[in-house]
Amino acid sequence: MKPWTDADLERLLTNPEHQDNPLLPALEWLQQREQAQRKQLEKLLRIADCSDGIARSQTHELLEQYDKQLRRLEKITRISDRYQHSLMELNEQLKQAAQQDPLTKLANRRLLMARLGEEVERCRRGASPFTLVMLDADHFKRINDDFGHEMGDRALCMMAETIVQQLRGYDLCARWGGEEFLLLLPQTELEQACHIVERVMAAVRGVRLEKEEQLRLSISAGLAMYQPDENVDLTINRADAALIQAKKNGRDQLQIART
Ligand SMILES: Nc1nc2c(ncn2[C@@H]2O[C@H](COP(=O)(O)OP(=O)(O)OP(=O)(O)O)[C@@H](O)[C@H]2O)c(=O)[nH]1
């Protein structure tokens, strides 16, 4: 049997032949109810479609917001990485500045005293003794007077570089004062220290600053070997006294400290 359509039903209900059929009112009632239900269903479907659209656009909006937050977070992370990196660099620079002489870039007194403390400890634990060498540029005032303070600065830097080149990796050269340097030679007894210092003095004599052919440099040195249980300040003083003696003896030479 072919399915009933609305038109078939309408024809049946309006057919004068069936006007007296007792089922007619029931059929009309069923038709009206079916139409009402259909309308209701269509309405519900429209609402469902609409809310589906809203849900879709809300989801899209949320995804966009999420992407935006993610990009913002990535940007913040990049900035924070850069910030952390520059903080670390700054920290490193500060650390260096606290331990370095700004002119010659050598270790400063603070770093040398720290290393000296460690060396004394090592010596107390039975390692072989170390030697300290106080170095002082000769007649440096004349260099400044004859060639100018700026050239004096360059001469100091050249001297520092030359001294370091003659040392071993574990030795330390610090700028002690104006034109004074202090060498820490770990695990080095006097005889070996003398060889090192003679090498340093010879190298300083050979320094030539371009354009200033007349400029000649030399240094005097006082050596003191650390004595077990000696206060290290005393070792420094002994090296200093030996240096004064080297100056008195005519400069450009080394002198060994008395114990
Ligand atoms: N250009 C320059 N000169 C410095 C610096 N520090 C110290 N000096 C100079 O070094 C000279 C040291 O002079 P003095 O202590 O009289 O000693 P000197 O002329 O080297 O003579 P002796 O040590 O006796 O051989 C002074 O003229 C200081 O101004 C510095 O950083 N740069």
Architecture overview:
α4 packs across α5 and α5 packs across α6. The protein folds into two domains: 23-99; 109-256, 2-Layer Sandwich (Alpha-Beta Plaits). The protein is α+β, with helices and mostly antiparallel strands. The chain has helices at residues 6-14, 24-99, 109-124, 140-147, 149-165, 190-205, 232-248; strands at 131-137, 172-175, 180-185, 219-225, 254-256. The chain contains seven helices and five strands; from the N terminus they run αααβααββαβαβ. Guanosine-5'-triphosphate binds at residues 103, 136-141, 144, 149, 152-153, 156, 178-179, 247, 251. Residues 56-100 form a coiled coil. Keywords: Coiled coil.
Observed structural traits:
Diguanylate_Cyclase, alpha+beta, GGDEF_dom, Alpha-Beta Plaits, 5-stranded mixed sheet, EC 2.7.7.65, 2 domains, 10% strand, 259 residues, diguanylate cyclase
The count of DSSP E runs of length 2 or more, i.e. the number of strands, is 5
CATH topology assignment of the largest domain: Alpha-Beta Plaits
CA-based shape: rod-shaped
Distance between the termini: 131 Å
List the uncertain runs.
none
Query: Biggest sheet, in brief?
Result: 5 strands, mixed
Q: Name the beta content range.
A: 5-15%
Largest beta sheet: strand ordering: 2-3-1-4-5
Mean pLDDT: 93
Organism: Oceanisphaera marina
EC number: 2.7.7.65
Coiled coil: 56-100
Domain GGDEF: 128-259
Blueprint of the fold:
Elements: H1 6-14, H2 24-99, H3 109-124, E1 131-137, H4 140-147, H5 149-165, E2 172-175, E3 180-185, H6 190-205, E4 219-225, H7 232-248, E5 254-256
Parallel strand pairs: 4-5
Antiparallel strand pairs: 1-3, 1-4, 2-3
The protein binds guanosine-5'-triphosphate.
